[in-house]
Amino acid sequence: MPTFQAPDGTVLACHVSGDGPPLICLPGGPMRASAYFGDLGGLAAAGHRVIGLDLRGTGASAAATDPASYRCDRLVDDVEALRLHLGLDRMRLLGHSAGAELATLYTARYPKRVSDLVLVTPGGQAVGEEATAEDRLETARLRRDEEWFPAAYEALEAVTQGRTTESDWEAVAPFTHGRWDPAARAHRAAGPQQRNQEAGALYDAEGAFAPAATREALSAFEGRTLLLAGEFDVAAPPRAVTAAATAFPDARTVVLPAAGHFPWHDDREGFVRAVTDFLG
Q: pTM surpassing 0.85?
């Protein structure tokens, strides 16, 4: 497990698997250890050297001495430290969910250092294209024939109306995966142990995002961008993901059928094919 230092001296860790051109992978959560990536549907076996970064305060990386450094825009420095540690002039960068926001901010600040950008079920805060309540509810209604749908949909309505209870978050869990099977339940159960809750609460603190400035900076990005959405994903509905694509000069959007927020769980072959076809 390679380790390296951030500019402020925080010791960070990354996890490497597979052979081939490196693919730097930034986890979501926000602030969840990269262990939840697993093998990313088999990307490592498909000719990619997958490098999962444990963001500060998660996994094998040290906690920050300054809690303010957990803010998304501050974490850009840690991603740049990893690039320098690996000796890469330009890198292929993948971000999932909240990690896609970090990947976007990194690309905006260092547009010449990214050759290919893959944003998997991304949020849209960084570029000002957040999903609406109706986006989420419309996507959820695609699952109306599932036995768990009535209770989950009622809870999702509460979430979108800002009157959420802890039981509502549990009730909407089936919407996170394309299939609410034992594997999905196990993945869900592992989440709290892998996530730094304190750091996650600071990730999108005031000042983290400046969408207009980010969009302007992205105009200098000469690489390609893939935005990968899941048809069933209420966290990053396809309409919002497609809208976010307009922030990138050379972007394409792929929607994986019947996939949720973790598409490499729902459609391993489709996920690997979409990413590999894009990266070449």
A: yes
